[in-house]
Amino acid sequence: MRLREAERVAYARDGYLLRRDLFQPDEVDRLRSAPEEVVASVVERARAGEGSREFRLAGDHRFQFARQSLIQWEWREGSGEVRLLEPVTHLDPRLDVLWSDPLLTEPMKDFLGVAGVCPFTSKLNLKRPREGSEYPWHQDYPYWYIRTPEHAHEIVNAMIFLDDAAADNGTLRILPGSHRTGPAPRDRSEPSQFLADPTQIDETKSVEVVAPAGSALFFPALLLHRSSPNTSERHRRALLLSYQPAGRERQETLPWHPELVHNLP
């Protein structure tokens, strides 16, 4: 489960590692059922008024809190589909147990160069058939910098594909090596100020992540990535567990200072 030497070299060079079929089919089935139950429960609570009211942030995207999780609704106006939940593992023990799974924790020790790791945040990323929208080029780093500017670069994602991921259902596209150049220039014309400037990105050098369900993609905070809309009749669901060195606080306990994003390029 620890990294082989060739994997260490490739990860340092490219900024990602894909381990195919990391989880067995029966485990993938279990992981698929848990998020769907979680989504149904959170949406029910939100619509019953047990969380916050729906609100909008820069970019006019819709958000809502319920069950100590942030719902990001699909970007199409009037859509009732959930695009993202964060955090999510606290909502079901079948998800929470993943934090201690050696399939994830052992390679994470090598990615981070530490003896122990702990959770930073978790997300459920949903692209429903014909409904799942794109996500433009970005790094996770700016979103985490406004919570923990000293340590945002020391966080690594494990993205577990719950469905086969391909071009037509909105799989990830990444820019190998982009993690080595630090924070990317931001798109100053974009309302949120968190997205990368697409005019500064050579997309011809990007790579599409095509992977079967049960695979896991590991990548750090500074890797540039984006995803396309789901134009297929298939789901594209993924769980993201973001790890950090042991002993640090989770994202939700840290103060939120969105103005810090202006410290970045």
Describe the structure.
Strand 4 and strand 5 form a beta hairpin. The protein has 265 residues and is an alpha+beta fold. The chain contains five helices and 13 strands. The chain has one domain: Jelly Rolls (Sandwich), CATH 2.60.120. Strands 1-11-8-13-6-5-4-3-2 form a nine-stranded antiparallel beta sheet. A four-stranded antiparallel beta sheet has the order 7-12-9-10, with no helix packed on it. The N and C termini lie far apart (37 Å).
| Straight-line N-to-C gap | 37 Å
Low-confidence stretches: none
Count of distinct structural domains: 1
Proportion of β residues? 15-25%
CATH architectural category: Sandwich
Summarize this structure briefly.
The chain is α+β, with helices and mostly antiparallel strands and 265 residues long. Helix content is 20%, strand content 24%. The radius of gyration is 17 Å and the shape is globular.
Tag the structure with descriptive keywords.
265 residues; Jelly Rolls; alpha+beta; nine-stranded antiparallel sheet; 24% strand
SSE blueprint:
Layout lengths: L4 H10 L2 E3 L5 H23 L7 E2 L5 E5 L2 E5 L8 E5 L6 H4 L5 H11 L4 E11 L7 E4 L2 H5 L10 E6 L10 E3 L32 E2 L7 E5 L4 E3 L8 E10 L20
Antiparallel strand pairs: 1-11, 2-3, 3-4, 4-5, 5-6, 6-13, 7-12, 8-11, 8-13, 9-10, 9-12
